Amino acid sequence: MSSLVTFGQCTIKIIDALNEQIGRGTSWLTLAIVMVSVIVVILRYCFNIGSIATQESISYMHALIFMLGAAYTLKHNAHVRVDIFYHRFNEKTQGWVDLLGTLFLLIPVCLFIIISSWEYVADSWAIQESSRNSGGLPAVYLLKSTIIIMAALLLLQAISLAIKSLFSAIGIPLNTAS
Questions:
Q1: Between the CA atoms of 16, 72, 155 and 14, what dihedral angle is there, to the nearest 10 degrees?
Q2: Tens digit of pLDDT for each residue in 55-101?
Q3: In the predicted model, what is the mean pLDDT of residues 139-158?
Q4: Which tens digits make up the pLDDT trace of 99-131?
Q5: Do residues 138 and 57 make contact, with C-beta atoms less than 8 angstroms apart?
Q6: Average pLDDT, stretch 141-147?
Q7: Residues 6 or more apart from 115 whose CB is under 8 A from it?
Q8: Between the CA of residue 26 and those of 19, 61, 66, 79, 172, what are the distances in Å?
Q9: How distant, in Å, are the alpha carbons of 31, 35, 44, 62, 65 from that of 38?
Q10: Torsion on CA atoms 35, 40, 68, 31, rounded to nearest 10
């Protein structure tokens, strides 16, 4: 039993560290969005210069923040939650609620997103899809790939959450530094 607990704790550490690094790295895109937006405004209104690619880059960065930050947000339990009863439950009951929610809602949704978007992303890669706008950004297929990446990162974080929830539900103390 102790080797299983150790394996679970190690798995949690690895997954949490991965999503922590991706989330922290992605957060820098918010600064980039502000800077690029300021540049777009200055170029447009001071120099009468417009760039579709620059404007599209703001949308790309915005999408990346949400897509790559979803698992980080889950890791920090920062998603919106409708909490009517949960906060009144003891730690073990909360563990069971989280475990069942992860197993029967989160993991199936992640798998559904991966399966249902696979062909959509593959088709985009097959034609090396780029912007429909003249002068727009190339490599739309890379941006579309983040749909699968987002679901995969959420799935990994769901595994971490499921292990944490199981430990909590059955009363095993969690010894991970995250």
A1: -10
A2: 999 999 999 999 999 999 999 999 887 788 888 999 999 999 999 99
A3: 97
A4: 999 999 999 999 999 999 999 999 999 999 999
A5: no
A6: 97
A7: none
A8: 10, 9, 9, 17, 33
A9: 11, 5, 10, 15, 18
A10: 10
- Token pair belonging to 14: 């690895």
pLDDT at 176: 57
Q: Is the dihedral of CA 114, 116, 121, 126 positive or negative?
A: positive
Eight-state DSSP code of residue 1: -
The secondary element (H helix, E strand) that includes residue 7 is helix 2-47
**Tokens standing for residue 67:** 């897509």
The amino acid sitting at 174 is L
